[in-house]
Amino acid sequence: MEDWQKNLAQSLTTPEQLAAHFPVDVATLALVVERYPMRITPHYFRLIRAVGDPIWRQCVPDPRELDDLDQPEDPLAEESLSPVPHLVHRYPDRALFLVSGTCAGYCRFCTRKRKVGCATMRVTMGDVRAGLDYIARTPQIRDVILSGGDPLLMSDLLLKEILDGLSRIPHLDLVRIGSRVPVMLPERITERLCALLRCCCPLYLNTHFNHPREITPEAAEACARLADAGVQLGNQTVLLKGVNDDPEVLRELFRGLLKIRVRPYYLHHMDLTRGTGHFRTAIADGVAILESLRGTLSGLAIPQYVIDLPGGKGKVPVCPDYVQRMGDEVWVRTPEGGRIRFPEVRG
Ligand SMILES: *Cc1c(COP(=O)(O)O)cnc(C)c1O
Ligand code: SF4
Predict the structure, then answer these.
(1) Which pLDDT score, from 0 to 100, does residue 47 have?
(2) Which of 104, 141, 159, 233 has its CA at 20 to 30 Å from residue 182's CA atom?
(3) How many A from CA of 125 to the centre of ligand 2?
């Protein structure tokens, strides 16, 4: 067993283990964990400072997960967009390949909480081969996104087999990996893994930091190893009520990410997933946050704010509206909050 696997095995997976450190209602949380699994890595657990803090909220089960019954389990209609199991083909040129059924830790707000860490998400070697076959015989696909679960929880051997399989497909321009491992289990980013990733080019890795306190020295070193291996690093943040729905928190997060060579890519509006209602914010809250960042933060640090539409209709950007038309005149709001008339070309 490698060191990271030993550490992963030390994760907290039951409310009783939490109760040894914090006052929690074991019986109530056990009901939640029966439905949606819990796993908190030793590294992530050390980041908790107090009950209910932004780290706690992301990883400790909450009874409200069982109250939110109005929403669908699969709002993005991923199951109906899967030509073969564990592969979602929503856009003509891109395929989302769910190669791993488990994650280092289970995020309470996860859009795939219906199945991550559950038996239905187990991916077999046969599924992997069927997915690779589908990609190989579908030449419109140029971009494959390995996700899950978390692809970096697979063994180096299996990951290499998948990456080698993908690099033999001539119509692919790039491969992306989506992984929260740099945040939750940074020790998984070993030199051996980086050597394996270096051979597969061009490779983009979108990681998933949601709060500046997740940018630890260990996470920064993991990102440095990946960047040094030639992996292009991006970040996807989910806008979460009570965790990061605050312009100052996101400003610090996005600045901190650029400092560790990770480019903020998307800020996701919460999906309408059953069991996650207590994390939902209004779209207007996200827009207001973006407006307050614009003009006071490096443009490189500002991600695109997106909504993944229900029913698998795809992602759309949500942008503050700076341009206003009044009759023949065009007025533009300035980042400072003023307004100037812009000499629009007449058609
Ligand atoms: C998000 C997503 C993608 C990738 O979208 P980009 O906007 O290119 O990052 C591809 N397929 C599915 C099913 C997705 O949900
Ligand atoms: S790491 Fe990603 S896939 Fe896994 S539980 Fe968290 S959000 Fe879901």
Answers:
(1) 98
(2) 141
(3) 22
Length of the chain: 347
**The pLDDT value given to residue 148:** 87
Please report whether residue 333 resides in a domain: no
d(C-alpha 193, C-alpha 105), whole Å: 20
Residues with C-beta less than 6 Å from any ligand 2 atom: 103, 106-107, 110, 112, 116, 148-150, 180
Is residue 156 a part of any domain in this protein? yes
Domain assignment present for residue 30? The answer is no
Question: DSSP letter string over 244-280?
Answer: T-SHHHHHHHHHHHHHTT-EEEEEEPPP--TT-GGG-
Residue 87 structural domain = 69-317
pLDDT at 165: 96
285, part of any domain: yes
Torsion angles phi and psi, residue 85, rounded to 5: -55, 140
Give every residue of the chain whose pLDDT is below 70, as ranges.
Answer: 347
| pLDDT, tens digit, 9 for 90 and up, residues 25-63 | 999 999 999 999 999 999 999 999 999 999 999 999 999
The total number of structural domains that make up the chain: 1
Mutation to probe ligand 1, out of 94, 208, 265, 268 (largest number of atoms < 8 A from CB): 94
Query: How many Å lie between the centroid of ligand 2 and the Cα of residue 324?
Result: 39
Residue 280: left if φ>0, alpha if ψ -120 to 50, beta else—which one? beta
**pLDDT at position 345:** 86
